[in-house]
Amino acid sequence: MTTIKKARQLDELDGLQKYAAEFYKKEGQIYLDGNSLGLLSKRAERSVHTLLNSWKDYGIDGWTNGEHPWFYLSEKLAAMCAPLIGAKSEEVILTGSTTTNLHQLLATFFKPTASRYKILADELNFPSDLYAIASQIALHNLPESSMKLVKSEDGQTITTEAIIEAMSEDVAVAVLPAVLYRSGQVLDLQAITEAAHEHGILVGFDLCHSIGSVPHHLHEIGADFAFWCNYKHLNGGPGSVAGLYVHEKHFGTGPGLAGWFGSAKEKQFDLDVTITAAPHAGAYQIGTPHILSLAPIEGALSLFEEAGIEAIREKSLALTQFMMDCIEQELSNTFTFGNPLDETRGGHLFLVHDEAARICKALKEYGVVPDFRAPNGIRLAPVALYNSFEEVWHSVQILKDIVTNKTYEKYENKRDIIA
């Protein structure tokens, strides 16, 4: 049975509880939207000030002087980020945005031929990825049908079998999410990668909803490439610089979209007419790093270095399980769980209810910050680094009160401009 006493007992045993004090948490509010935008940490705030002051103190010499020289900052942060995805530091670079990185990777690795000209994706993927894939297909003057979508049987999840079955001989590249953004399903990256390679397909993964909450082993399983944002579970700040990974077996493959920051460091300022590309993932940078948008990531990643991704995953699973138990106990048969009930779920839950938009608005009024996904989904993400079991218990009590008393009925059942 779930009780407030049980929640407090779990908090007492929580080895990560101390990190909650590192974050700016609004008094009287339970923040459960860290899978959309993570909270600001005090360390991220300090690293912003440090980088800002380096501009003030050094001017242009900040590129090579100070605590975090700008010229090497993307590589330094990549080395901090690499353990979270099971990559070598030279296989990672922090650069661009999620979608521009996907464009770079497809421009580099999607080389359609007469017999292999399709990109395999799935119909539940975040639409931004699908827009980029469609754009790349159009650039090659290929028909729209060259994007092949794996279908979902239940509208919430995708089976590994369905993905593998879709790996036909005309597929050149597969682009799939590590965690589905709605249901939170964790895909079997190893099985998918092995099957793709057996079919002669390059495979890349969108880690936006997994990095920082789910451990990965990309180098070990041989995944060809990956890309992600750093502002969700990694708490890098709104619009913070994104990241990409390229397996070392592809080093030397020229970037499809070349730019001067993809140069080898020692040659960059020779300013030759022909680029000498970096011999690692740095080759896939395009423009000058956005230093002030990289700045908070340094402080944010230091928390993950200390806490460890395995411990974070363990607590995340415990938090979501406790929340499901509370919902089952207090709100039996009120919601349908759209997320997997076992450990193939990521860092958030997905509750399905016809009045989801109204319920989300009511939750915010009562101090719980959820995330609405049209047409009928509520995402709730208790984050291991800053949420507690007691907060989970209280949030479900508030949800129960809202649903039982139908206080949501004063709102329109439609999303705001930003869901």
TrEMBL record:
<comment type="function">
    <text>Catalyzes the cleavage of L-kynurenine (L-Kyn) and L-3-hydroxykynurenine (L-3OHKyn) into anthranilic acid (AA) and 3-hydroxyanthranilic acid (3-OHAA), respectively.</text>
</comment>
<dbReference type="GO" id="GO:0009435">
    <property type="term" value="P:NAD+ biosynthetic process"/>
</dbReference>
<dbReference type="InterPro" id="IPR010111">
    <property type="entry name" value="Kynureninase"/>
</dbReference>
<dbReference type="GO" id="GO:0043420">
    <property type="term" value="P:anthranilate metabolic process"/>
</dbReference>
<dbReference type="InterPro" id="IPR015421">
    <property type="entry name" value="PyrdxlP-dep_Trfase_major"/>
</dbReference>
<feature type="binding site">
    <location>
        <position position="260"/>
    </location>
    <ligand>
        <name>pyridoxal 5'-phosphate</name>
    </ligand>
</feature>
<dbReference type="Pfam" id="PF01041">
    <property type="entry name" value="DegT_DnrJ_EryC1"/>
</dbReference>
<feature type="binding site">
    <location>
        <begin position="126"/>
        <end position="129"/>
    </location>
    <ligand>
        <name>pyridoxal 5'-phosphate</name>
    </ligand>
</feature>
<keyword id="KW-0378">Hydrolase</keyword>
<feature type="binding site">
    <location>
        <position position="98"/>
    </location>
    <ligand>
        <name>pyridoxal 5'-phosphate</name>
    </ligand>
</feature>
<dbReference type="GO" id="GO:0030429">
    <property type="term" value="F:kynureninase activity"/>
</dbReference>
<comment type="subunit">
    <text>Homodimer.</text>
</comment>
<dbReference type="GO" id="GO:0097053">
    <property type="term" value="P:L-kynurenine catabolic process"/>
</dbReference>
<dbReference type="GO" id="GO:0030170">
    <property type="term" value="F:pyridoxal phosphate binding"/>
</dbReference>
<keyword id="KW-0663">Pyridoxal phosphate</keyword>
<comment type="pathway">
    <text>Cofactor biosynthesis; NAD(+) biosynthesis; quinolinate from L-kynurenine: step 2/3.</text>
</comment>
<dbReference type="GO" id="GO:0019805">
    <property type="term" value="P:quinolinate biosynthetic process"/>
</dbReference>
<dbReference type="InterPro" id="IPR015424">
    <property type="entry name" value="PyrdxlP-dep_Trfase"/>
</dbReference>
<feature type="binding site">
    <location>
        <position position="206"/>
    </location>
    <ligand>
        <name>pyridoxal 5'-phosphate</name>
    </ligand>
</feature>
<dbReference type="Pfam" id="PF22580">
    <property type="entry name" value="KYNU_C"/>
</dbReference>
<protein>
    <recommendedName>
        <fullName>Kynureninase</fullName>
        <ecNumber>3.7.1.3</ecNumber>
    </recommendedName>
</protein>
<feature type="binding site">
    <location>
        <position position="209"/>
    </location>
    <ligand>
        <name>pyridoxal 5'-phosphate</name>
    </ligand>
</feature>
<comment type="similarity">
    <text>Belongs to the kynureninase family.</text>
</comment>
<feature type="binding site">
    <location>
        <position position="99"/>
    </location>
    <ligand>
        <name>pyridoxal 5'-phosphate</name>
    </ligand>
</feature>
<dbReference type="GO" id="GO:0005737">
    <property type="term" value="C:cytoplasm"/>
</dbReference>
<dbReference type="InterPro" id="IPR000653">
    <property type="entry name" value="DegT/StrS_aminotransferase"/>
</dbReference>
<comment type="pathway">
    <text>Amino-acid degradation; L-kynurenine degradation; L-alanine and anthranilate from L-kynurenine: step 1/1.</text>
</comment>
<feature type="binding site">
    <location>
        <position position="231"/>
    </location>
    <ligand>
        <name>pyridoxal 5'-phosphate</name>
    </ligand>
</feature>
<comment type="similarity">
    <text>Belongs to the DegT/DnrJ/EryC1 family.</text>
</comment>
<dbReference type="InterPro" id="IPR015422">
    <property type="entry name" value="PyrdxlP-dep_Trfase_small"/>
</dbReference>
<dbReference type="GO" id="GO:0019441">
    <property type="term" value="P:L-tryptophan catabolic process to kynurenine"/>
</dbReference>
<feature type="modified residue" description="N6-(pyridoxal phosphate)lysine">
    <location>
        <position position="232"/>
    </location>
</feature>
<keyword id="KW-0662">Pyridine nucleotide biosynthesis</keyword>
<feature type="binding site">
    <location>
        <position position="288"/>
    </location>
    <ligand>
        <name>pyridoxal 5'-phosphate</name>
    </ligand>
</feature>
